[in-house]
Specification:
Blueprint: E1 3-9, H1 13-24, E2 33-40, H2 47-50, E3 58-64, H3 70-75, H4 92-101, E4 106-110, E5 114-116, H5 120-130, E6 134-141, H6 144-152, H7 161-167, E7 185-189, H8 190-195, H9 210-220, E8 225-235, H10 250-264, E9 288-294, E10 301-306
Parallel strand pairs: 1-2, 1-4, 2-3, 6-8
Antiparallel strand pairs: 3-9, 4-7, 5-8, 6-7, 9-10
Length: about 300
């Protein structure tokens, strides 16, 4: 196995189902990659999203509970199930847990709502075999019109990637430039994540900028950022969501400003290379509740692991 794909996810099952269609048409053989769904408290049944793909891909459904983390308990000292949470549901914990569980030497850090061009996985693996780096792809930012096009074209993968971009009029959308290196569609060595101590938990007290900090520390550990315009993806729109933690209200923007100031005030020119999360386990493995595993060739789960002790 060459590539592990930990997907930080909470609901978005319909978008995940479509994204998995783009995984299935990858030119890298399915036996050489795996998907890890790091499921942080989804209320939707994610198994319905991947049920059609069982037996065709390697997949682990990892049930994750962020309320077990010491940072959450610090912010919510008297928390009981059902209480309102003083918490910003960011991908920091789940990204670290997924990278810890990865079995392959290379990791793909994506959002679960990103569609991938057919050669993305193979191209990334080939490049990382030749030179260790942090690869970023060109990503178009979809809108509700694009989502409606996809909903009305269930066979969107049949004509190939270029035909999809043309038929869906993707050229009208904004795409990330070579200077916009976000982990919407990115690949890096697993050991790079370990070397920097994962995503910094300091960003859990707000929203955003944890990916920028993570990227900068990766680069300063000797894994240069590389923008590859031939690694391509399309981020599907999810602006219609109504869950409280996804509403961009005044509190959300205040928390974003908090994280921006944290990031801007860090002097990476003087950074000594010490790993993040020195006072905590960077893996967040204490939040892993259960792992259900499926392999290629069978629609039955091959293992079910439960309890915190199994991962110690």
């Amino acid at each position: 196995m060459m590539l592990s794909i930990p997907l930080s996810i909470h609901n978005r099952s319909s978008l995940l189902r479509r994204a998995l269609e783009s995984y299935l048409w990858q030119s890298l053989p399915p036996a050489e990659w795996e998907v890890l769904l790091i499921d942080d408290g989804s209320t939707e049944n994610l198994s319905e999203a991947y049920e059609a793909f069982l037996g065709k891909i390697n997949l682990r459904h990892v049930f994750f509970d962020h309320t077990r983390h010491e940072r959450f308990r610090r912010r919510n000292p008297a928390f009981k199930r059902g209480d309102p949470e003083d918490w910003f549901k960011t991908p920091a914990l789940t990204t670290n847990a997924g990278s810890y569980l990865a079995r392959a030497p290379f990791v793909g850090l994506f959002h679960p709502e990103v569609l991938h061009a057919p050669d993305n996985f193979r191209r990334a693996v080939d490049q990382l075999k030749a030179k260790e780096a942090y690869l970023f792809g060109k990503v178009w930012l979809g809108d509700r019109l694009m989502n409606r096009w996809l909903e009305s074209h269930s066979s969107w993968t049949q004509g190939g990637w270029e035909a999809f971009l043309s038929d869906s009029s993707a050229d009208r959308l904004r795409a990330f430039s070579p200077s916009e290196l976000y982990w919407y569609c990115s690949f890096l060595p697993r050991r790079a994540v370990q070397a920097v101590g994962g995503v910094d938990f300091e960003y859990l007290d707000g929203n955003s900028y944890e990916d920028c900090d993570f990227r900068d520390r990766i680069v300063r550990k000797g894994f240069p950022s590389v923008f590859d315009p031939l690694i391509q993806g399309l981020h599907m729109d999810h602006s219609s969501e109504t869950e409280a933690h996804r509403i961009r209200d005044s509190r959300w923007y205040e928390s974003e400003r908090r994280n921006e100031l944290l990031y801007r005030n860090r002097d990476f020119g003087l950074w000594t290379g010490s790993p993040a999360n020195s006072s905590a386990d960077w893996t967040a493995r204490e939040c892993i509740v259960q792992i259900v595993e499926y392999g290629i060739g069978s629609r039955k789960c091959v293992s079910v692991l439960q309890g915190s002790g199994i991962l110690a």
